[in-house]
Amino acid sequence: MTIQWFPGHMAKARREITEKLKLIDVVFELVDARIPLASRNPMIDEITAGKPRLLLLNKADMADPEATKQWVHYFENKGLPVLVLNAKTGQGINKIEAKAKELVKEKFDKMKAKGIVKPRAVRALILGIPNVGKSTLINRLAGKNIAVTGDKPGVTKKQQWIKVGTSLELLDTPGILWPKFEDQEIGLKLAVTGAIKETLLDFTEVVLYALGYLKVHYSERLCERYNLADIPEEPLALFDEIGRKRGCLMSGGYIDYEKAAEIILRDLRAEKLGRLSYELPLQ
Ligand code: G4P
Predict the structure, then answer these.
(1) Is the CB of 86 under 6 A from ligand 1?
(2) Where does CATH 1.10.1580.10 sit in the chain?
(3) What is the pTM (predicted TM-score) of this model?
(4) Which positions in this protein are listed as binding GTP (predicted)?
(5) Which helix (H) or strand (E) holds 32?
(6) Pocket test for ligand 1, best of 57, 62, 88 (most atoms within 8 A of CB)
(7) Start-end ranges of CATH 3.40.50.300 in the chain?
(8) What is the CATH number assigned to the segment(s) 202-270?
(9) Which CATH class is domain 7-172?
């Protein structure tokens, strides 16, 4: 789903999340493991200030496992607890409850000591930009298919709590935040991974960007998939070469870039080049 974010929508989304934050103890921030920085909201620290946060690297089944390992270290070194997930199959989600309890332990112990509240479940909210897998995760945690109707800014309904295990309750509507789209590279990363579907970005530009990245980080896989002897220096020359190999030619022998881009993008999304990550932590 693509949401067009305007300043009014952003302000409204933020207001709605601020309201939801009053109800919960811990935030589950969901990002795409292949682009853990590009798939974050630029104001997440400010918006969730004061609430313990658990970062969930979702779609890890599609990400490069080595890169994911590096990201886990990166975030843990910054003091942010992390879990690696595949919300589609549920892999990794059984660790969420224990992690959430750990994060609120101090607060709950204090409340207990002061006799403020009776023991109760930890309350959590899933937050993230569109398409990172919030609804899929909520359904997985709920153990059934529930209609996640709040998945649009401005759509409101009565909040329900979903019981997860014995000591966790999850709000059934996620908080939806906007990506940092003023940065063009972030837009390109979101488009390559499919987070922006009907992209306003030029299709061929997205592929050209991806090829430039893959050439540096996954050259062997490119050679293997497209039967290349070596990789041309310039991403455009690489694009040409793959287009030629795939028979994407127009009359006069010119490369049909749109057709070539479509093939490459389809290959990338179908994991024909294996599990790829499009970001690595700065060394
Ligand atoms: P959102 O609420 O954050 O907007 O995201 P949503 O759950 O709708 O998920 C967006 C897409 O990502 C869906 O695919 C969903 O199946 C897929 N997805 C979510 N989590 C994972 C994961 O861990 N691994 C993989 N591989 N995919 C995941 P879709 O193409 O829109 O729908 P469908 O093909 O599943 O029907």
Answers:
(1) yes
(2) 202-270
(3) 0.93
(4) 58-61, 131-136, 175
(5) strand 26-32
(6) 88
(7) 7-172
(8) 1.10.1580.10
(9) alpha beta
